[in-house]
Amino acid sequence: MQKKLAEAAKYIQDTKKCSPKVGIILGSGLGAFVDKIENPTIISYNDIPHFHRTTVEGHKGRLIIGKVDNVEVVILQGRFHCYEGLSMDDVVFPTRLLSKLGAEILVLTNAAGGINEKYRAGELVAIEDHINMMAKNPLIGDNDNEMGPRFPDMTKAYCPELREIVKACAKEQNYEMKSGVYAGVLGPTYETPSEVKMLRIIGADLVGMSTVPECIAANHIGMKVCGISCVTNMAAGIENVVLKHEHIKDEALKVMELFSNILLNSVKKFGKL
What we know:
The protein has helices at residues 2-15, 88-101, 160-172, 193-201, 212-221, 245-254, 256-270, and strands at 22-26, 38-44, 62-68, 71-77, 105-114, 124-132, 178-184, 206-208, 224-234. The chain is an alpha/beta fold. It starts with a helix and ends with a helix.
């Protein structure tokens, strides 16, 4: 793993020398945020050693190096998922690469189904914790002591300080951002109404098919993690609708400007930490 990460990092550094403070992974329909980045250098996933191509619509498969004010960032426009037939190591390889490049803070974003009935489609929610329902973990197997400890603490998997910064930046946009617990499921099927009821009972406010593996890997390495979900639909059984991926993209686009402004201002403040 370390050899693969070194090869991927060398390719990127040879393409564009960088020392990012913040890494960002953009979820379904949220990729337009990269239009706000200053002096971007764009690298296709197809060109990065040991990366896979993205297969999900709404995930362009590009790594972007640039700046937000004076804060250097590296952005992953699109992510990998286990349901694409990939191993957990493949799914979290980009997260580990961001750390290898120097990122100390990781911002995870996603499109999610709303389980909490106080939510509505189009809302942005700060992730305060997660429940791993994937029956998988990226740390299974021999531990790499160079990366982190065998048993990493996940008590504050989503850094409270970063979350409060995001919520404060939302307030500056006259937007009251809620906090919630994200349940990560394997997919690719959407959940059944009974599964949604179960997730609500065990304390989940949101559900999606990503984010949890990257959060675990990032905490293992020692990165501070911040999570933002865009509620693109209410989860199965709450509303009498058929869930479709294209609807998710449409809802994400509706809040793109708000999402981008909150994230831009948050990154500026992260750079001062």
